[in-house]
Amino acid sequence: MVKIAVTGKGGVGKTTIAAGLARTFGARGYRVVALDMDPSPNLASSLACTPGPGGNITPLVEMEDLILEKTGAPPEGAGLVFKINPKVDDIPGRFGIPCRDGVRLLVLGSIRTGGGGCFCPANALARRLVDHLSATADLLVMDMEAGVEHLGRGTTRTVEALLVVTEPTVKSVDAAAQIAKLARDLGITRIFGVVNKVRDGHGEPFISRLSSLGITPLGTLPYDPAVQEAEEAGTPVFDHPHGGQTRTRIGALAAALEKSLGPFGGRAGDRGP
C-alpha cells in the first residue's frame, strides 16, 4: 500500500487533483481508497460517488456515537481515558462509499479542536483508521484540509508521499514552502509539487522555485475552463464533455507519481488511464 497526501493552500484545486489521481489509478485496476479529510468535504462529487439513502454524508469524526463506541469517550474528550488503538476494521465496510472507476471513499472530516497537536478520541480514531487502511488497498489518496494545521495532528505521519498543489503565485508557493518544512519535521522525505491553473505556459519560474525549496516538481496543469463549466453543471470534470485536457494531464501526473514511487501493490490491470 502506498499512501499519498494531497495538500496545498485553499483554492488551488487539490480536491480535483486528488480525485483525478484516485480515479486514474482505480481505472488502471488498483484497489484505491480515497480519504476526505477536509473540514468541508466535497471529494464525493469529484469521484462521482453513490451515497446511501438520503444522499447526505456525515464525516466520521462528527459521528459522536461511533467515536464513543470505538474509543470509549466523546469525540473531543481530551484529558479523558480512551482507547488509543480502537478497533476500526469494520469501518470501511460500514461507511465506505462506492465511486466511479472502482474507487471507494471514506469521509473522515477534520478534527476542529483548538491546537493542531490535539490528541483526542476523534484524532485517535483518525490515526488508527489511516494505519488500518494500509492493509486493505493498494493506494490510499488523502485529500487534506487546506494549509498546514493537519500536519500537527499526525494523520499524515506514515504517508509515503506528500503532493503539494500550488498556483502560479508567490503566495501559493510560499505556502508550499511552509508545508514542506513541517512535513520534513514529521519525517516525510518524498515531497512532490505540481503547479495548477497555469496560463500561457507561464509555469516554469514556479517549477524552478519549487525545486529550489527541495520539492520535486512533477509538472504543471494548465488552466482549464472545463473545470468551472463542470462545477456549474454539477458534474465531475472527468466526466464532462470538455474535460479531456484535465483527464489527460492528471493521467500524466499519475504516471509520474507511479514512476517515482513504484507499483502500488502490483495489482494494476490491463486497462489504460
Describe the protein in words:
The structure is a single chain. This protein has 273 residues and is α/β, with parallel strands linked by helices. It has a single domain, classed as P-loop containing nucleotide triphosphate hydrolases (Rossmann fold), CATH 3.40.50. 36% of the residues lie in helices and 17% in strands. It is built from nine helices and eight strands. Strands 3-4-2-5-1-6-7-8 form an eight-stranded mixed sheet, sandwiched between helices. A hairpin with a 5-residue loop joins β3 and β4. α1 crosses α9 and α3 packs across α5.
CATH topology: Rossmann fold
As a percent range, the share of helical residues equals 25-40%
Number of folding domains? 1
Give the strand tally: 8
Q: Give the percentage of residues in beta strands.
A: 15-25%
* CATH superfamily placement: P-loop containing nucleotide triphosphate hydrolases
Model regions low in confidence, pLDDT < 50 over at least 5 residues: 113-117, 268-273
CATH class: Alpha Beta
CATH architecture: 3-Layer(aba) Sandwich
Strand arrangement across the biggest beta sheet: 3-4-2-5-1-6-7-8
Distance between the termini: 20 Å
What's the order of the H and E elements? EHEHHHEEHEEHEHEHH
Structural class: alpha/beta
Note the main sheet.
8 strands, mixed
Write the layout of secondary structure elements.
Layout (H helix, E strand, L loop, with lengths): L1 E7 L5 H14 L4 E6 L5 H5 L16 H8 L19 H5 L1 E2 L5 E4 L13 H13 L5 E6 L16 E6 L3 H16 L5 E8 L5 H9 L3 E7 L2 H9 L10 H18 L12
Parallel strand pairs: 1-5, 1-6, 2-4, 2-5, 6-7, 7-8
Antiparallel strand pairs: 3-4
Helix pairs in contact: 1-9, 3-5
